[in-house]
Write a structure and sequence with these properties.
This protein has helices spanning 2-20, 69-74, and strands at residues 39-45, 55-60, 65-66, 82-88, 91-96, 101-105, 112-117, 124-129, 134-139, 143-148, 158-161, 169-172, 175-180, 183-188, 198-200, 215-216, 222-230, 233-243, 248-256, 268-270, 278-279, 285-293, 304-312, 318-324, 332-335, 341-345, 353-359, 365-372, 374-378. With 384 residues, it is mainly beta. Mean pLDDT is 90; it is low at 1-28 and 30-36. A hairpin with a 4-residue loop joins strand 8 (124-129) and strand 9. The protein has a domain at 164-329: Methylamine Dehydrogenase, Chain H (7 Propeller). Strands 20, 21, 22, 23 and 24 form a five-stranded antiparallel beta sheet that branches.
């Protein structure tokens, strides 16, 4: 009997160690991103500034998590403040803001394929390809940085001064579009020059919408989210459609915000600070967040919650999509190809590891503990 109990104890201990090995460096990685589809999502974790804790977490479909795939495979930190991850020419290009570099990573093995180090001041943010061999990087220093996206990667090709700081970029009709507080700037992709920039002044961002990425729909049109205001009060969520060929706004649709004092459950009563946007893989549905009234009070005694709404780009009609009753402030937001909602939860914004909150369409929720300051969720194979 003692031998049997000891055997069961060892079996349970071994099983627990095997499950916990997802957090241990040096574990073997099954093919997934470009292989048999074992990977559910990648998470880019910024990491606490000045700690070199930027990391790529891998969430597998069986629920297991590898917290820092790059560190485990390359035996060195990826860098400081991982800002964005973009698949270009079959490689991940990761902007490391505070390290002033771009790390190129193999999407199957997670091995480093190269590093583009800045040779002058800069803080890389978002990366978009502008040709089969080049991309531009947005930067806090009011510049766009041109880089190579095929070997040899080398150093940045050019630092291009621009009138305003641009965060999110999109490319359409061989033009680069970047939204700022002064309007939507337009540059020719093959001749990015400050003096040749055009501005679409009707489309701009503000403090609480600067976290909303621009989106390109199935017709190649560009969408930007703005807050409609009257006398300084936000009265609606507006989505504006821009024709990149004509460089003008061609449509505008607004979801009104109701009475903030309304007690009617489900009523839209406010907007979200630092809102986020996403679009489905077909380029048909645009997702964003609002504040709605609830029947029951939350832990803070407030009868309100965040809710996901979406708009159909064909009809311009809005509809309620999902309620997020336990969410305070999200650090990142994405909707999977299956329609599930993923939120990045940094907890109390200290150096502890955060969570990905996965809200399934059936109403259930799954939480995955990932790296420090998770900020972007990426679904391999689903990019438009």
């Amino acid at each position: 009997m003692f031998v049997k109990k000891w055997f069961y104890f060892l079996a349970i201990l071994w099983t627990g160690m095997t499950w916990a090995s997802c957090d241990k460096p040096g574990m073997p990685y099954p093919d997934g991103v470009l292989g048999d589809g074992d990977i559910e999502a990648l998470v880019l974790n910024e990491g606490l500034i000045n700690t070199n804790a930027g990391a790529i977490s891998v969430i597998y479909k069986d629920g297991s998590v590898v917290v820092d795939a790059f560190q485990d495979i390359n035996h060195r930190p990826m860098g400081d403040v991982a800002q964005s991850i973009t698949l270009i020419n079959g490689k991940y290009f990761v902007a490391m803001n505070n390290s002033k570099k771009i790390e190129i990573v193999d999407p199957v093995t997670f091995k480093s394929e190269g590093t583009i180090l800045y040779t002058q001041a800069g803080y890389p943010r978002q990366i978009v390809p502008i040709s089969p061999t080049e991309a531009v990087v947005s930067d806090l220093n009011r510049q766009l940085v041109r880089i190579r996206t095929v070997p040899p990667y080398g150093k940045p090709l050019e630092y291009i001064s621009i009138p305003r700081w641009v965060e999110y970029l999109v490319v359409a009709e061989n033009k680069v579009f970047g939204m700022t507080q002064g309007g939507l700037y337009v540059f020719d992709a093959d001749n990015i020059k400050k003096d040749y920039a055009r501005v679409i002044k009707e489309v701009y961002n503000e403090e609480f919408t600067k976290t909303c990425q621009m989106l390109v729909d199935k017709e190649g049109m560009i969408w930007g989210l703005m807050y409609q205001k009257r006398s300084g009060v936000v009265t609606g969520i507006t989505l504006k459609r821009v024709d990149p060929k004509r460089e003008k706004v061609v449509e505008s649709h607004t979801l009104p915000i109701g009475d903030p004092n309304s007690q009617t459950p489900g009523e839209i009563i406010g907007y979200i600070n630092y809102n986020r946007t996403d679009i489905d893989p077909t380029g048909t549905w645009i997702y964003f967040n609002v504040k709605t009234r609830t029947a029951k009070a939350n832990d803070k005694g407030e009868k309100e919650q965040q809710s996901v709404y979406r708009m159909n780009v064909d009809s311009g009609e809005f509809e309620h999509y999902y309620d997020l009753p336990e969410v305070g402030m999200m650090y990142g937001f994405a909707v999977s190809p299956e329609g599930d909602v993923y939120l990045c939860d940094c907890l109390d914004y200290t150096a502890q590891r955060g969570y990905i909150r996965h809200y399934l369409k059936d109403g259930s929720k799954v939480s995955h503990k990932v790296g420090v300051y998770p900020g972007q969720v990426y679904f391999p194979g689903s990019q438009r």
